[in-house]
C-alpha cells in the first residue's frame, strides 16, 4: 500500500511536469510537486465509483478545475509522431478505424515498458474492466432480457472482429506474444472505450491523465441562469458551444474541465460523459447507476403497433419511472383506434392527447398486461434478485454469499456459476476456493443482476402507472 502511494505521488509529480494543473492561475508554485491540491484531490468513494476526485475547497459551478495541455494528452498523433517505426506501420494499415489504431498505439506503448514516455501514466490504468464485451456466456445469460443479451453478444463479436483486423498491424510491429492475445486487446479496447475524452481532430478521442479520474454523473439541468464568472481576467461564456463539463479549448491549447455544479469541500467532483441508459453505460463504461433518469426499457410490441405510427422503434420505450414514452403512447393510441378513424384523430395522438376514455382504457390494459407477461416470463423474481444482489455484495466471503443465496427460491443460478467455472459441486461450500477469474465473474454477475433488477422494477412501476390511470376512470 505504501509503495502504491509513493508510485501515485510520482505520477502526480510527472503530470505536474507536463503542465497539468487544477489551478485557474498560471502560478501554482505552492503545489509545484503535484498537479493537484488547489481544487482537487484523489479520494476513495466506496459507495460511488471507488477512486475519484474530491474537492479540497468549495467549488462554484462553472469554475475551471482542471487544465491538461495538448502535449499531455495521449492521442494517436502524439504516439505515432514520436516513433518512426510505428508511423510507417500504421500507414501500411490505413483501412483500420481510428479507434483500432489508438488501441494498437496503447498496446505498443505498454510493450515498451519503462522506456515509454507514458509509463508513469500507464501503470495506473486499471488492469481489468467490466464492459459488456468482457462478459462471458454465464454473465450474458444472467442479464436475462433478450435485448441486453443481444447487445452483449454484438459487443463481444465486434471486439473479436476488430482484434482480428488489427492483428496484422500488431504482428508487423512485432508485438510480444502476450500483447497479441485477445485478452490484451479487449483490455486495451476497454481502456479506450471507458477512459477517452472527446477531441475534435480524432474520433478515437484522447487518454487524459488526471482527467480520466472523474467518475460519471448523469446529465442535469442546462446552463441557463449561470452567473458569468471571470477567470484570469477573462469572462467565461457559458452559452458558447463549449461542453457543459469541458472540452478541448483551442485558444488555451488544452483540455479544460469545469465544475458541473456547486461542490462543498470533501464532495466527490463528477463529470458527465453524455446521456446514457444503464445498458449503454454497461456497454461502453462497465458500470451502471442505481438511479438513472436517462434509463429506458423496451417491451415487445405487436407488428401493427409499429406500422400504426411514423415514430422510430427507438422512441417506443418506457421511462425509468414506469411512464410510457410520448411516442409509445401515441403509437398505442393509434393502434387502438379503428383504421377508418386514424386519419381524423392522428393529429391529436401526435400532439399527446387522449383520444377517448375507451381508447385510453384499451391502451392501459394492454400495456399493463404486456408488462406483467414479460415480468412473469423472466427466470427470477424481483425478490430473488434482491437477495442475490445482497449475496453478491458479500463475494469476498463465499460462505456468507452462499448463506444469503440460500434464501432464494432456487439455487440454480448459483450452480450454473459453479459449472461455468468448472467448480465441482462440493460436499461443503467451505471447500470452494475461487480463482481470480471466478471473482472477476462475480463482479460482472452482480452488474447483470443489478441491471435486470432495475428492468423488472420499471415494469412494475409501469403496471402501477397503468392501474392508476384505469382507477381514475372509475372514480
Q: Could you describe the 3D structure shown?
A:
The chain is of the alpha+beta class. The chain contains 17 helices and 13 strands. The protein has helices at 2-17, 76-80, 84-91, 98-112, 119-122, 137-142, 146-172, 182-195, 278-284, 303-307, 326-335, 339-350, 357-377, 382-392, 398-405, 412-420, 436-474; strands spanning 40-45, 50-55, 64-69, 196-199, 202-207, 215-216, 230-231, 234-235, 246-249, 254-258, 268-271, 296-297, 318-319. It has a four-stranded mixed sheet, with no helix packed on it. It has a three-stranded antiparallel sheet with strand order 3-10-9, with no helix packed on it. Helix 4 (98-112) crosses helix 7. The longest helix has 39 residues, at 436-474.
Question: What strand line-up does the widest sheet have?
Answer: 1-2-11-6
Quickly give the structural class. Answer: alpha+beta
What does the main sheet amount to?
4 strands, mixed
**Number of discrete helical segments:** 17
Name the overall outline. Answer: globular
Low-confidence stretches: 221-243
Order of helices and strands: HEEEHHHHHHHEEEEEEEEHEHEHHHHHHH
Helix content: 40-55%
Strand content: 5-15%
Number of strands: 13
Mean of residue pLDDT?
87
Q: What is Rg? A: 26 Å
How widely separated are the two ends?
65 Å
Architecture blueprint of SSEs:
Layout: H1 2-17, E1 40-45, E2 50-55, E3 64-69, H2 76-80, H3 84-91, H4 98-112, H5 119-122, H6 137-142, H7 146-172, H8 182-195, E4 196-199, E5 202-207, E6 215-216, E7 230-231, E8 234-235, E9 246-249, E10 254-258, E11 268-271, H9 278-284, E12 296-297, H10 303-307, E13 318-319, H11 326-335, H12 339-350, H13 357-377, H14 382-392, H15 398-405, H16 412-420, H17 436-474
Amino acid at each position: 500500500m505504501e509503495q502504491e502511494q509513493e508510485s501515485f505521488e510520482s505520477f502526480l509529480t510527472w503530470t505536474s511536469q507536463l503542465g497539468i494543473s487544477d489551478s485557474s492561475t498560471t502560478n501554482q508554485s505552492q503545489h509545484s510537486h503535484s498537479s493537484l491540491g488547489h481544487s482537487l484531490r484523489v479520494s476513495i468513494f466506496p459507495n460511488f465509483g471507488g477512486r475519484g476526485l474530491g474537492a479540497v475547497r468549495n467549488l462554484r459551478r462553472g469554475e475551471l478545475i482542471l487544465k491538461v495541455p495538448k502535449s499531455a494528452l495521449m492521442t494517436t498523433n502524439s504516439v505515432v509522431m514520436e516513433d518512426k517505426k510505428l508511423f510507417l506501420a500504421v500507414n501500411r494499415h490505413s483501412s483500420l478505424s481510428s479507434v483500432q489504431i489508438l488501441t494498437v498505439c496503447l498496446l505498443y506503448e505498454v510493450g515498451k515498458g519503462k522506456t515509454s514516455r507514458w509509463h508513469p501514466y500507464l501503470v495506473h490504468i486499471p488492469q481489468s474492466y467490466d464492459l459488456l464485451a468482457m462478459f462471458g456466456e454465464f454473465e450474458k445469460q444472467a442479464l436475462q432480457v433478450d435485448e441486453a443479451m443481444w447487445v452483449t453478444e454484438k459487443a463481444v463479436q465486434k471486439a473479436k472482429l476488430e482484434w482480428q483486423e488489427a492483428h496484422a498491424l500488431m504482428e508487423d510491429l512485432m508485438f510480444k506474444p502476450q500483447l497479441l492475445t485477445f485478452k490484451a486487446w479487449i483490455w486495451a479496447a476497454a481502456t479506450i472505450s471507458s477512459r477517452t475524452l472527446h477531441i475534435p481532430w480524432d474520433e478515437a478521442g484522447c487518454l487524459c491523465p488526471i482527467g480520466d479520474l472523474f467518475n460519471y454523473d448523469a446529465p442535469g439541468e442546462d446552463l441557463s441562469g449561470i452567473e458569468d464568472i471571470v477567470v484570469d481576467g477573462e469572462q467565461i461564456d457559458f452559452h458558447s458551444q463549449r461542453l457543459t463539463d469541458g472540452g478541448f479549448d483551442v485558444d488555451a491549447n488544452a483540455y479544460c474541465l469545469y465544475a458541473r455544479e456547486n461542490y462543498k469541500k470533501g464532495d466527490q467532483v463528477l463529470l458527465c460523459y453524455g446521456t446514457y441508459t444503464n445498458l449503454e453505460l454497461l456497454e461502453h463504461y462497465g458500470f451502471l447507476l442505481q438511479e438513472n433518469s436517462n434509463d429506458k426499457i423496451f417491451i415487445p410490441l405487436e407488428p401493427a403497433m409499429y406500422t400504426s405510427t411514423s415514430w422510430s422503434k427507438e422512441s417506443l420505450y418506457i421511462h425509468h419511472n414506469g411512464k410510457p414514452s410520448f411516442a409509445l403512447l401515441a403509437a398505442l393510441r393509434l393502434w387502438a383506434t379503428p383504421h377508418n378513424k386514424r386519419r381524423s384523430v392522428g393529429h391529436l395522438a401526435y400532439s399527446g392527447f387522449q383520444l377517448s376514455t375507451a381508447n385510453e382504457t384499451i391502451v392501459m390494459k394492454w400495456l399493463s398486461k404486456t408488462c406483467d407477461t414479460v415480468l412473469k416470463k423472466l427466470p427470477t423474481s424481483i425478490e430473488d434478485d434482491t437477495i442475490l444482489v445482497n449475496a453478491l455484495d458479500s463475494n469476498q466471503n463465499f460462505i456468507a454469499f452462499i448463506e444469503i443465496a440460500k434464501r432464494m427460491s432456487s439455487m440454480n443460478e448459483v450452480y450454473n456459476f459453479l459449472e461455468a467455472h468448472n467448480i465441482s459441486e462440493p460436499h461443503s461450500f467451505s471447500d470452494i476456493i475461487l480463482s481470480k477469474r471466478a471473482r472477476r465473474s462475480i463482479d460482472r454477475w452482480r452488474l447483470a443482476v443489478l441491471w435486470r433488477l432495475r428492468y423488472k422494477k420499471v415494469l412494475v412501476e409501469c403496471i402501477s402507472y397503468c392501474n392508476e390511470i384505469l382507477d381514475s376512470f372509475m372514480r
